[in-house]
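Figure 3 (text version): structure tokens given as input.
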């Protein structure tokens, strides 16, 4: 550690430009661009300016929240120059994947820190954004501790990009000292990428109403991203349910609404008084709420998503969405057939942890149908998952499936009971076809129901 009196001098010794940082990337180098809102901007642009010189570069990231694709991706055209990989796809990762430039790394989110630590020196250079250094020589990682300490421990070299707009996140392991940093780039202070959500649809509101009806006071809530979770948060804010706690992988705007309504209290046995999360993504309202707010607690993903921690909290409520569910109760939440959409994330951890929690429930929500390009509708409850679809939550772990037509608790139900319950919450236009398919596949018959 440095003496406080020497911090300014040591800072200047490590200060370099974005172009100088980019010049440290040589051919056949593996680099990490950061996680969430902490992915770099100026260094990415500097590397893009060197695009013609680069060969055999691999760029890693996790849930990269950006306003546009990486500049380095835009400046290159082949995997021989630069290839990308992500442990959880964002919209731009999907775009790169479709063009054969980005690959998904299948892994439970909570395992990532362990992976990096167990593969020391797996990353040549870790680039990521931080808040400005404080008077003690510490740089705040912002609201995305997530897997960052695994990345830091695995990297041979650490180069941070300072962004004055990065919120100061309170929590566990949110600080990185100047002593542990090789170089510093003072960035152009780009605003954090905001994740806007569409207004809740009538179907979202119907699904949310079914979920909220099953949530009691004194519950701890995990929500995902999108119009539906925000709708659930708003309904809870307007409901008679009180004393809501937050323990969530992703911190979203809905929690701010709950706090403003006086519903978010933090009165839970684990991390008492804190709204616990591993990374945040939302609007400026959310980032301003997090900034230097001791109620908000960012923590490593291997703690936040730990099934043992989740299950130790009574009345734990997990709410996630999916892309497709079949009549066995298998849930796909990350791909459309063979096309990777997002990632496994922590859905399985929270589904299992919520069920093991005393009084806990896990809800996986989906509209009953989706509209195709030709205007026709397709049922999102299928006889069997589409070929190539990834099973995110296995049927053995699935608890509640919720559509606009109701909530089906599949836990402990036989295969024919599951099929019948899921058909009952499917869109009426598809129920007859689902019954026929279930009979054909031998998982449902009119005579299946026990009469004793």
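Below: residues designed for each position.
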């Amino acid at each position: 550690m440095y003496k406080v009196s020497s911090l300014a001098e040591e800072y200047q010794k490590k200060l370099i430009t974005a172009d100088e940082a980019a010049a440290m990337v040589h051919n056949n180098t593996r680099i990490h661009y950061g996680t969430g809102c902490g992915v770099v901007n100026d260094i990415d642009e500097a590397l893009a300016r060197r695009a013609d010189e680069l060969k055999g570069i691999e760029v890693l990231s996790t849930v990269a929240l950006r306003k546009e694709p990486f500049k380095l991706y835009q400046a290159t055209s082949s995997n021989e120059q630069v290839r990308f990989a992500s442990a959880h796809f964002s919209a731009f990762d999907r775009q790169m994947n479709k063009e054969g430039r980005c690959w998904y790394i299948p892994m439970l989110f909570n395992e990532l820190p362990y992976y990096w630590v167990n593969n020391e020196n797996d990353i040549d250079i870790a680039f990521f954004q931080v808040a400005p250094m404080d008077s003690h020589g510490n740089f705040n990682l912002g609201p995305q501790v997530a897997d960052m300490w695994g990345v830091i421990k695995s990297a041979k070299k650490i180069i941070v990009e300072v962004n004055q707009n990065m919120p100061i996140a309170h929590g566990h392991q949110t600080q990185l000292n100047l002593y542990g940093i090789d170089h510093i780039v003072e960035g152009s202070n780009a605003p954090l990428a905001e994740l806007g959500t569409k207004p809740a649809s009538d179907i979202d509101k119907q699904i949310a109403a079914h979920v909220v009806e099953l949530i009691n006071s004194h519950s701890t809530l995990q929500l995902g991203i999108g119009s539906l979770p925000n709708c659930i948060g708003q309904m809870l804010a307007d409901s008679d349910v009180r004393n809501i706690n937050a323990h969530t992988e992703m911190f979203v705007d809905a929690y701010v609404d709950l706090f403003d309504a006086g519903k978010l209290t933090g009165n839970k046995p684990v991390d008492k008084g804190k709204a616990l999360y591993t990374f945040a993504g939302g609007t400026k309202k959310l980032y301003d709420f997090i900034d230097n707010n001791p109620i908000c607690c960012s923590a490593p993903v291997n703690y936040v998503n730990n099934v043992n921690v989740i299950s130790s909290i009574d009345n734990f409520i997990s709410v996630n969405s999916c892309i497709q569910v079949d009549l066995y109760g298998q849930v796909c939440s990350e791909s459309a057939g063979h096309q990777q959409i997002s990632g496994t994330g922590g859905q399985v951890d929270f589904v299992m942890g919520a069920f093991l929690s005393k009084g806990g429930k896990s809800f996986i929500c989906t509209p009953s149908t989706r509209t195709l390009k030709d205007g026709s509708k397709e049922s999102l409850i299928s006889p069997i998952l589409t070929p190539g679809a990834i099973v995110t939550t296995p049927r053995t772990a699935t608890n509640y499936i919720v559509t606009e037509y109701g909530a089906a608790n599949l836990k402990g139900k036989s295969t024919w009971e599951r099929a019948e319950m899921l058909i009952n919450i499917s869109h009426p236009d598809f129920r007859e076809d689902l019954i026929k398919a279930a009979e054909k596949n031998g998982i449902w018959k009119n005579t299946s129901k026990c009469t004793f």
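The longest helix spans residues 428-440.
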